[in-house]
Amino acid sequence: MSFTYAPAPESRSVVDIAPSYGLFIDGEFTEATGGKVFKTVSPSSEEVLSEVAHGSAEDVDRAVKAARKAFEKWSALPGSERAKYLFRIARIIQERSRELAVLETLDNGKPIKETRDADLPLVAAHFFYYAGWADKLDHAGYGANPRPLGVAGQVIPWNFPLLMLAWKIAPALATGNTVVLKPAETTPLSALFFADICRQAGLPKGVVNIVTGDGTTGAALVAHEGVNKVAFTGSTAVGKAIARTVAGSDKKLTLELGGKGANIVFDDAPIDQAVEGIVQGIFFNQGQVCCAGSRLLVQESIQDELLDSLKRRLSTLRLGDPLDKNTDIGAINSAEQLARITELADSGEAEGAERWAPACELPEAGYWFAPTLFTNVTQAHRIAREEIFGPVLSVLSFRTPAEAVAKANNSQYGLSAGIWTEKGSRMLAVASKLRAGVVWANTFNKFDPTSPFGGFKESGFGREGGRHGLEAYLDV
Amino acid sequence: MSDRLSVFKTYKLFVGGKFPRSESGRVYEVTDSKGNWLANAPQSSRKDARDAVVAARKAVGGWSGATAYNRGQVLYRVAEMLEGRRDQFVAEVADAEGLSKSKAAAQVDAAIDRWVWYAGWTDKIGQITGSTNPVAGPFFNVSSTEPTGVVAVLAPQESSFLGLVSVIAPAIATGNTVVVVASEKAPLPALSLGEVLATSDVPGGVVNVLSGRTAEIAPTLASHQDVNAIDLAGAEADFAKELEIAAADNLKRVLRPQGVDWAVTPGTERMTAFLETRTVWHPTGSLGAGGSSY
């Protein structure tokens, strides 16, 4: 006798997507210069959701000028007034959170369970948190009356579209900056809905400007002379290009880039909880997470037991319609990303690692990749070194804590790491040796607006979240 | 006046706690502000720079792992040793920068006091940069800072000693190790500082001092894959831009050159520029009537 789940789809009717969207500049939706547009599709079905304006360098210039104009009044507002705008935004996001969750799932392909229970609550919380800072900056530890920088040019990725927008816009506005934000090419819609939220909140024109487009649009934004601050979340390669672009200028730069997080499981770890943490670490959001625990480092003596449990658990994951409330694994965000994951996974096999995936039927339309793990992985393998940004776990083993630390740190990246052990002194000792900006001990992939996030080494610099996150937007 | 012939000092590099000559065998003439010969200083090669990075990397574990209290005492010891050699440094700074004896003395005094200032910071900086974070969930969440690693420092060109100390001390106070390129035309106080550091309980490799042509050595440091950060204090704007571009290759933390009055008591910026924040999460569980939920 077998049990199957009946479909339990979240209703799409809660969201109304227009057939086309313009750029949001100076408080108005406007066509791109030359009228260029691009389509955004739903990754789970390849259905075209809408047509979006493709911003040019000229459009970026218009947006930066609007932000500059708005800066004077916005930065001069009492912090308590700026705070109230941000509180309004936080509240409207809460009110519209189901609509936004469905929209995000449609445009991104991630399960509704995640957008509803993780992305949207965190988005609202982030605005609520930074709203409270706006009139308390004197007490933030950056001296009396710290000043904003001016116009912030912000470029965000497609893996958490609205959450990354919140991480960028909330601290920027709280500190008195104005922004021009470029959402990712494959997930522009939630940022455009956010523009509408700004209108509902009565935010002054030009304080937030959204310019949709591709990499060239983002490049024009970070290179624009009128921009005082550049914030980027995305790949390390693009991060380096941006660092070169802003070299020699006065632009303040923060980068939140790739990772190859080590999730270290010691022999005394609670196995069932560790398995849940490993699954959360690499299969949350289809592994398209910069801080994913993509390298599992397991102590040799428990490797077999752990892998058995893990494989059993992976066999129960449900892959399919992202709008279904029971779905664990949604669609990969784009054909391009799917090709990248496929290529790297194939290299794992070619280099001698052993591939395993549960029996898993993939839908015909859309972009899908089954949860996959590799054993017999060496540190030299590409799948142990390069960020896959997909649901692919590389398993390595170790004997001693020192070896675990050495292997964990053997990476160009340094964003996240996990530790599973019941022994407090070992947890603290290992945590203090890991060159990573976020260490999750006996948990994984937890986020909070009060908790600073960001990397060591080539995972970037600067922190987002908490008191630390203010520094990126202040002239200090 | 005695007609005794004085003993000249051979100025040498300070790398890994030792005093090597440049592996290239090159020296260059150092003169005072009036053009009179003072000494021949080693003209470091790119290989010397790479050797210095190796020495600095080797020292990271021990120095960053030392207690903050210990680092504070070591930095204070530097001030003690300098006080004893005050006259020597006053003479060297006066020659190097063309200053009167009293003005040079003011520079040296300020430099000694700067070591004391940073000695006191070693076990306090973490308390103002770290935090416990009230996350909305059953987690203990704490952010703390730790050193970036190996920091390349281009010392200020004009302020041969006070400027030099003002860029080295903050970097090592927090547990980084440094490779410093001395002022090109006035390297002698920097090379003499190496002799002080060698007798101040500063472990070998924590500070490595190179003299030579900044334009020759700096690009090697800026593009070096095992250097984590670079302080461009001693670079002109155009050159600084070039170095910042090279530094992007492994995403070094870059401190751009800015007009600094070295005589003014500094803030914390030169320390925080070379610190990384790590946030650790752990579940807290609860101890209700039924016992632990974890």
Please explain how this structure is put together.
The complex is a heterodimer of chains A (476) and B (294). Chain A is 38% helix and 16% strand. With 476 residues, chain A is of the alpha/beta class. Chain A folds into two domains: 12-257 and 456-473, Aldehyde Dehydrogenase, Chain A, domain 1; 262-441, Aldehyde Dehydrogenase, Chain A, domain 2. A seven-stranded mixed β-sheet of chain A has the order 13-14-15-12-11-16-17, sandwiched between helices. In chain A, a hairpin with a 6-residue loop joins strand 4 (37-41) and strand 5 (48-53). In chain A, helix 3 (97-108) packs across helix 4, helix 4 (112-133) packs parallel to helix 5 (161-174) and helix 9 crosses helix 10. Chain A is globular. The N and C termini of chain A lie far apart (66 Å). The mean pLDDT of chain A is 97. By secondary structure, chain B is an alpha/beta fold. Chain B has one domain (27-32, 47-282): Aldehyde Dehydrogenase, Chain A, domain 1, CATH 3.40.605. Chain B has ten helices and twelve strands. Chain B has helices at 46-65, 68-84, 86-97, 101-121, 125-129, 162-173, 188-198, 214-223, 237-247, 269-272, and strands at 27-31, 37-42, 131-132, 139-147, 150-154, 177-181, 207-210, 229-231, 253-255, 275-283, 287-288, 291-292. In chain B, the strands form four sheets. Chain B has a five-stranded parallel β-sheet, sandwiched between helices. Chain B has a three-stranded antiparallel β-sheet with strand order 3-4-10. In chain B, strands 1-2 form a two-stranded antiparallel sheet. In chain B, helix 3 (86-97) packs across helix 4 (101-121) and helix 8 (214-223) packs parallel to helix 9 (237-247). The longest helix of chain B has 21 residues, at 101-121. Chain B is globular and about 90 Å long. The relative contact order of chain B is 0.17. The A-B interface holds A 125, 141, 236, 239-240, 243-244, 247-248, 255, 257, 412, 427, 431-432, 434-443, 446, 448, 450-454, 456-458, 460-461, 463, 466-468, 476 and B 128, 131, 133-137, 139, 141, 143, 146, 228, 237-238, 240-242, 244-245, 247-251, 253-254, 269, 276-283.
